[in-house]
Amino acid sequence: MPLHKGSNRDKEPSKERRRRALNPFFGEADPTAGMTSAPPRHRLPDGPLPPSTAYGLVHDELMLDGNSRLNLATFVTTWMEPEAGVLMGECRDKNMIDKDEYPRTAELERRCVAMLADLWNAPDPTTTVGCSTTGSSEACMLAGLALKRRWAARNADRYPAAAKPNLVMGINVQVCWEKFCNFWEVEARQVPMEGGRFHLDPQAAAELCDENTIGVVGILGSTFDGSYEPIADLCAALDTLQEHTGLDIPVHVDGASGGMVAPFLDEDLVWDFRLPRVSSINTSGHKYGLVYPGVGWVLWRSPSDLPEELVFRVNYLGGDMPTFALNFSRPGAQVVAQYYTFLRLGRDGYRAVQQASRDVASGLATQIEKLGDFHLLTRGDELPVFALTTAPDVHAYDVFDVSRRLREHGWLVPAYTFPANRQDLSVLRVVCRNGFSSDLAELLLEDLRLLLPELRGQRHPLSHDREVATAFHH
Ligand SMILES: Cc1ncc(COP(=O)(O)O)c(C=O)c1O
C-alpha cells in the first residue's frame, strides 16, 4: 500500500464530479439544486456541507467495503455485543494518556493487566508490570526493546562499538518482528520451515543463539497455520544451552492470538510465566481477547525485566504517571471494552466462546477434508484456525483459484505461499472467530461444494502469479 500523497488535486472533469453527487431527495440536501453538489475528493472542500449530506456521501462509499463477518482472513474481532458498543461510544472522547483526567479508565487498564498476570500465571501478579497498547505489533516492539536494553546493559563494554544484537525466531513470525528488527537495528535470525514442520524448532533456535542474542521469540500460535510453537521445549533447549555455554537467553512469547485461547482451552499446556525463562508475553485484546480493534497488551514477569529507563514519567497533565508506549494519545474506549469483556465473560464465558470457535474450526476442517480435494496442514485444534492445500492429485486448479472463486460468494479466504524452506507450498487459511457460527460455516461449505465441479473442470490453474497472496493477514 503506497503512502498517501498529499498533492492529488481534484482533476476530475465536471461530468465525473456530477456523478458523485447525492440523491437530491436525501436528508437535508436541497432538491432544487439537483445533482450539482460535488465536493472534491482529494483536497479540502471550499465550504461546509450539511451533516446529513456529508454522512450520506461517506456512508454510501463505505457500502463498497467487504462484510467483515465473512472475512475469514482476519484474526481481529468483528462482532461485539451492543452493550460493548454503547460503552465504547460513551468513552470515545477519552484519551488513554490523560490518566490524571480519566483515573477510572486508568484503573480499568491496571485491573486488566492484573487479570492477565493472574491468567498467565505470573509468580506475583501484584508486581507484574504491563500496559495496554494499540495491538500486538506495538506490544512486540516494547517487549523487543526491553530485551535489547537488558542485553545492552549486560554488554556495555562491547555495545555498540564491537557487537550487533540479534533476535532468534521462526521464519513464520508475524511481520511485526521483522519490523522490530529493522526499526531497532537488530539482526533477525530465523529458523526456516522444514518438511512437515511449519514453525520454530527448539534445537535449531538454540543453535542460532550466541553472546549477542537478546532473546528468542516463541509464537502461540503461528499466523501461518494456527499451530502452537513448543514454548516449553524451547525453554528446555535454552536451559541446556545455558548449562553448556553459560548463555542465559530470555524468551518472549508472542501470544497475539493464543494468549487468550490456551489459558481457557489448554490448561495443561505450560507455555506462560510458569516457565522461569519466559520474561514477557503479549496478546491482542482485539483478537481472541474479543474486543474491536485496536487494543493489545504486554506484560513482564517482574519489574526487573523492564528496564526502568524505558519508562517515561509524564507530569504535565496534572499528575506523575509512568508510561511505556510508542504513542502518546490513544483511544481509551478499547481498554474499557476489554475490561467490560473480562467482567462479562469471566473464565467460564471465555472458555465457552473459544471452545465454540474451536469446534467450528475443527468441524469445518473435517468436512472440507471429506470433500476429497484437499489436504489439511492443521485441523483447528490449537488456535481455531486451519490451513489446507490441494491434494496431490488435484491438477486442474490451485488454492489461489479457490480463494478467488470463494470471493465471488462474499467469502474472504486468503491463499498464500509459505516461506523458506517450503516456498513450494501454497495454502488457504481459515480463521474462525466468535461470530462465525456453525451455521455460517455450513454455508461456506455449501458454497465450496457448489464451486468444486467448475474448479475440477478447469484445464489448469488460472493463477499465474504465485507470488501474490490474496488478502493474507499475517
Ligand atoms: C503472532 C502474531 N503476532 C503479532 C501480530 C500483530 O498483531 P496486531 O495486528 O494486533 O498488531 C499478529 C497478527 O496477526 C500475530 O498473529
Compact description:
This protein has twelve helices and 13 strands. With 474 residues, the chain is of the alpha/beta class.
Verbal overview:
With 474 residues, this protein is of the alpha/beta class. The chain has 3 domains: 14-62, no CATH class; 83-342, Aspartate Aminotransferase, domain 2 (3-Layer(aba) Sandwich); 355-456, Aspartate Aminotransferase, domain 1, CATH 3.90.1150.160. 35% of the residues lie in helices and 13% in strands. It contains 12 helices and 13 strands. The strands form 3 sheets. Strands 1-7-6-5-4-2-3 form a 7-stranded mixed beta sheet, sandwiched between helices. Strands 10-11-13-12 form a 4-stranded antiparallel beta sheet. Strands 8-9 form a two-stranded antiparallel sheet. β4, α8 and β5 form a beta-alpha-beta unit. α10 packs across α12 (438-456) and α11 packs across α12 (438-456). The protein is globular and about 65 Å long. The chain binds pyridoxal-5'-phosphate. Pyridoxal-5'-phosphate is lined by residues 75, 135-137, 140, 174, 176, 219, 223, 254, 256-257, 284, 296, 473.
Please specify the SSE layout and strand pairing.
Blueprint lengths: L13 H6 L31 H12 L19 H9 L12 H17 L9 E5 L2 H19 L11 E5 L4 H9 L3 E5 L10 H7 L4 E7 L11 H15 L5 E4 L7 H4 L12 E7 L11 E5 L11 E3 L6 E3 L9 H38 L3 E3 L8 E6 L8 H10 L6 E3 L8 E6 L6 H19 L18
Helix pairs in contact: 3-10, 4-10, 5-6, 7-8, 10-12, 11-12
Bound molecules: pyridoxal-5'-phosphate (PLP).
Family: Belongs to the group II decarboxylase family.
Cofactor: pyridoxal 5'-phosphate
GO molecular function: glutamate decarboxylase activity
